[in-house]
Amino acid sequence: MALKNTGNEIISSLKSLLAEQPKSVVLVTHENPDGDAIGSAIGLGEVLKEFGHKVNIIVPNAYPDFLKWFSTEIEIVVYERKRPRATTLLGKADVLICVDFNEPKRAARMKKKLLEFSKPMVLIDHHPNPSDFCDYMISEPQYSSTAELVFDVVTLMGVNHCLNHDAAEALFAGIMTDTGSFSHNISSPNVFLVVAKLIECGIDTEKIHDAVYHTFSEHRMKLLGHSLDKMKVFPEYRSAVIWLSLEELKDYNFQPGDIEGFVNYPLSINNIVFCALFMERKDHVKVSFRSKGSFPANEFARDHFSGGGHRNAAGGEIKIPLDDAVNKFTQLLKEYKHLLKETTIKKNEKYDNK
């Protein structure tokens, strides 16, 4: 796929930047890294390592166990747990690459570190409306995932010969998770062309799927059941909402990643086109939004919950009590009734990626 927003000069400059060996390269993901963030970081990291660079990955906070099976030997440092180590790595880095996020605040605890970094910074991401905080910007929202974009960037840079088995495995996992196992945001043939190339590297796609989707705990399954049992549906607004308190999460022995995918379930209900998941944190309420068709979940998140994202998948947060946050959502549905009623869905359309 041709890059729509990235000129050849950016690719050439990035290639020149990384041509001299060896360099110390640090890759950083967004807070609460998902499969695309981890997969993209490991995939690109493995390519750069094969090319001869010293590579480390830093994630702002802990990530789910179902994303810890990768066979890479690249060190992944959790910033909130090993801040001195992460600070040392950033201090020695020649290049910093931000993957799967496009504004410093998405790195949460690491925001200040990113803004203070004085050497070359690179952005590789597929989310819309990027913030201009990197020296080299590769922002391509038409891609299904950052992992798919990483593959094409690596190819355009002429270093795809460095794409080893571990890199292919990680990039496949990134694409798979951000497309919901290839159920949405796959209108471009490029997704499957990239996947075909990754499979040619000898990866076991069934093993990857099983590692991501079939390793959840009993507590997680019971939490899902509880969430669906208390879900509230608003047929008149074609919407639904789920909310979870800190106490409920504690009751079900919540671990990072346990609610992955919960927000998508209400969209399985006939004629529901918009839904939200509210999760209470210590000092705020985190919100995830999903929609179908033409309803702009990202605009809803931006206008009311200090958030943003894709049209059909967005997130935000708000610093009010959980019950008040849920009540705010339900009241807002009245204002959006006409738009929700008029939301159109193309034949066989699912929803865009997260």
Put the structure in a nutshell.
The protein is built from 13 helices and 12 strands. It has about 350 residues and is α/β, with parallel strands linked by helices.
Along the chain, the helix and strand elements come as HEHEEHEHEEHHHHHEEHEEHEEHH
What CATH architecture label of the largest domain applies?
Alpha-Beta Complex
Taking the alpha carbons of the first and last residues, their distance comes to 20 Å
Query: How many whole angstroms does the radius of gyration measure?
Result: 20 Å
> What is the number of domains?
2
User: Could you name the CATH class of the largest domain?
Assistant: Alpha Beta
- Strand arrangement, major sheet: 3-2-1-4-5-6
What is the number of helical segments per DSSP (H or I, 4+ residues)? 13
Walk me through the structure.
The protein has 2 domains: 8-213, inorganic pyrophosphatase (n-terminal core) (Alpha-Beta Complex); 218-342, Diaminopimelate Epimerase, Chain A, domain 1 (Roll). It contains 13 helices and 12 strands. The chain has helices at 8-17, 35-51, 83-92, 111-116, 146-156, 165-178, 190-199, 205-213, 218-230, 246-251, 297-304, 322-335, 337-342, and strands at 24-28, 54-59, 75-78, 95-99, 121-125, 136-139, 232-234, 239-244, 274-280, 285-291, 308-309, 313-318. It has a 6-stranded parallel beta sheet with strand order 3-2-1-4-5-6, sandwiched between helices. Strands 7-8-9-10-12-11 form a 6-stranded mixed beta sheet. α2 (35-51) runs antiparallel to α6 (165-178), α5 (146-156) packs across α6 and α6 packs antiparallel against α7 (190-199). Residues 348-354 have low confidence and may be disordered.
